[in-house]
Amino acid sequence: RITVKELAEILLTPEDIARRVQELGAEITRDYQGKELVVIGILKGALPFMADLIRQIKVPLRYDLMAVSSYGDSTRTSGAVQILKDIEMGLEDQHVLVVEDIIDTGLTLKYLVSNLQARCPASLKICTLLDKPSRREVDIHPDYNGFVIPDHFVVGYGLDYAERFRELPMIGILKPEVYTGK
Ligand code: PRP
Ligand code: MN
Ligand code: MG
User: Fold this and answer.
1) Mapping DSSP to helix (H, G, I), strand (E, B) and coil, where does residue 27 land?
2) Which residue among 68, 71, 129 is best mutated to probe the pocket of ligand 1, counting the most ligand atoms within 8 A of its Cβ?
3) Which residues are in the Phosphoribosyltransferase domain (predicted)?
4) Which of 10, 79, 124, 172 is the most buried (most CB within 10 A)?
């Protein structure tokens, strides 16, 4: 078992994550029976989750990636959402599932949902691995959620602090001294 010195606590082990991703995949498979899916992963944070989730969804799917950023190298959101890379496929009459690693203030997804809705999909749902409802600033609710978590700065499994820690197989709480520099 690996230890990471910057983590104060491990919130979710690789096994916790794998089990829940399997459950989410099974739930999504049931809900989309007889349909085809378009899965849209939101870079960069959603990459590990999306990669694992698509292999647990047993209906035919296509996936694409979108890059949106609002956080920069800070632990707090600026609220300004920017599309850095758009998807390449059209969404008209498609069943679309947006995959995120975390919903925090909700600003990223609020923007994305209205942007994608304008492309006239047959349906549009949200799947997030983590939900931090205590931080919500806009009204947005995931259709599929892995874990509700308390208000701590978490990293790992795609989640970063200043681009670091995304590669960790677990999700942990970052020691405050890492971002306060003390
Ligand atoms: C993070 C995270 C979500 C978003 C959630 O992305 O991956 O996409 O913030 O925050 P919100 O609900 O307050 O909008 P970030 O902008 O840090 O980009 P990244 O995925 O490249 O790390
Ligand atoms: Mn993100
Ligand atoms: Mg980030």
Assistant:
1) helix
2) 71
3) 15-161
4) 172
Give the residue whose CA is nearest to atom 18 of ligand 1.
69
Between 68 and 154, the more confident residue is: 154
pLDDT confidence of 4, banded at 50, 70, 90? very high
In a domain, 43, yes or no: yes
Please give the backbone phi and psi of residue 87, each rounded to the nearest 5 degrees, phi first. -70, 160
Q: Strand 154-155 vs strand 82-85: parallel, antiparallel, or unpaired?
A: unpaired
Q: Is 136 in the pocket of ligand 1 (CB under 6 A)?
A: no
For residue 19, what is the domain's CATH number? 3.40.50.2020
pTM (whole model) above 0.90: yes
Structure tokens at 175: 């020691």
Q: Quick one: what percent of the chain has pLDDT higher than 90? A: 89
Which range of residues forms the domain containing residue 55?
15-152
Instruction: Label the pairing between strands 37-43 and 95-103.
Output: parallel
* Residue 28 scores a pLDDT above 60: yes
Question: Residue for token digits 């349909």?
Answer: 35
